[in-house]
Design brief:
Elements: H1 2-26, E1 76-79, E2 84-93, E3 99-106, E4 115-120, E5 124-125, E6 136-138, H2 142-146, E7 159-160
Parallel strand pairs: 1-6, 4-7
Antiparallel strand pairs: 1-2, 2-3, 3-4, 5-6
């Protein structure tokens, strides 16, 4: 990988020097003869000219209105009965990048005695979250969440779902 980076960097430097020498030669007065003209340096064989077909296409651009989407990390989570359920600390995605679950820091006081549990993404209701003080609603009771096993990174996780509609992750080949 370092060799490729070095090759790209050295190629760019040589190409830049070639352009600089060519421009300097063009700026010489027309009265100079060939004996006094500076030698021109031909580009090395490793320099490949970039044509428009080699250039990367421009990225797509999507504009999302300020009231149309919001971040969820750190947001408070409350039950349908308005009980404090904690706050979202992580989002779990599968191997294809689809959001599957949220990790909630549940219980405790000021982070002491709390534990992380995983809930199905479909059990969350985002309703009105137009500002950071608005909370996300979880379709589970406090007792159900309290009974959930603790989430530990890099171990199999139990995802708590509101309606039992979760499907196990399939291995992607």
């Amino acid at each position: 990988m370092r060799t490729v980076r070095w090759l790209v960097l050295s190629t760019a430097i040589v190409a830049g020097l070639t352009v600089a020498v060519s421009r300097a030669a063009e700026e010489l007065p027309a009265a100079t003869n060939e004996a006094n003209a500076p030698p021109t340096i031909p580009p090395p064989a490793s320099v490949v000219p970039v044509t428009p077909k080699d250039a990367a296409p421009p990225p797509s651009v999507t504009i999302i209105g300020a009231s149309d989407a919001h971040g969820v990390l750190g947001r408070d989570v409350r039950s349908a009965a308005d009980e404090d359920m904690g706050h979202i600390v992580d989002v779990i995605v599968d191997l294809t990048g689809h959001v599957r679950a949220a990790v909630i820091d549940f219980g405790g006081f000021l982070g002491v005695g709390s534990r992380k549990i995983v809930v199905d993404w479909n059990a969350l209701r985002f309703g009105k979250i137009t500002n950071k003080k608005d909370s996300i609603t979880l379709e589970l009771t406090k007792a159900q969440v309290a009974a959930a096993p603790e989430y530990k990174e890099d171990t199999p996780m139990v995802v708590l779902g509101a309606s039992g509609s979760l499907q196990p992750l399939q291995a992607i080949q």
